[in-house]
Amino acid sequence: MTSTVTTSQTGGGTTIRARSEAKRARIVDVAMRHFAEQGYHQARVQDMAAELGIAKGSIFQHFGSKERLFLAAYKKAVMSFPAWLDVPAEIRDQGFFATVRYWLVRTVDTLREDWVPYRVGIIGNYGTDLGLKRQINRFLVNEDPYRLSAFVKFGVDRGELRRDVDQDFVASFLDWTWERFQDALLTEELDPGLFRRHGGRPERTEARIEEFLRLLRSAIGMPAADPLAESVPRSSKPARR
Predict the structure, then answer these.
(1) H-assigned helices in the chain
(2) Which of 29, 154, 176, 177 is the most exposed place for a label (fewest CB within 10 A)?
(3) Per the domain annotation, does 28 fall within a domain?
């Protein structure tokens, strides 16, 4: 009898927990869209609750605050993005900078397929309070959702990235510059004309991507050998005047 009751209680607890997790997931899905459409400050938990058909307090019961609700939405958005090395084999074989180019080109394409997580990501980067931004940064550093460290090691092992700079600094530099440039592309696509009068034309976007790659390579790429320096023989005696 005791064993039967325990099993029943365990099964009931599992069912309740599963329902709670399913409800939490629905809340996050709706919250993502509201944050994407309205922004962090303008989005209202009350509107999310009304769409879900639940009490506003039920959302706070699961997340505690609007800040924690956005953090959950941001984490889900970021975790839906692929990691750096999740590329086709032929792109990976071409190397580090070919992979960076692949993702920059794919950014705009995937944005058109599903813009909500990208918008949530941009809002998390620029449209939240300092305290929330600090939590976002801690999540990105601790979880490394894009597997950035592994990607930098991939570039170093291939001999494409310089070895005279600490790999953690190279990863941070790539993260800083990539994030700003990618967000500029995304914002230009989401809000045409925000940065430029006529928005971004496809050919101009491609040219900017190549410019970014050239600058990135010059900063963290392995310096190319100087063919002139190698072709001039060195003399052991000083030249006579």
Answers:
(1) 2-38, 45-52, 56-63, 66-79, 89-94, 96-113, 116-126, 130-143, 148-157, 167-190, 202-220, 227-231
(2) 176
(3) yes
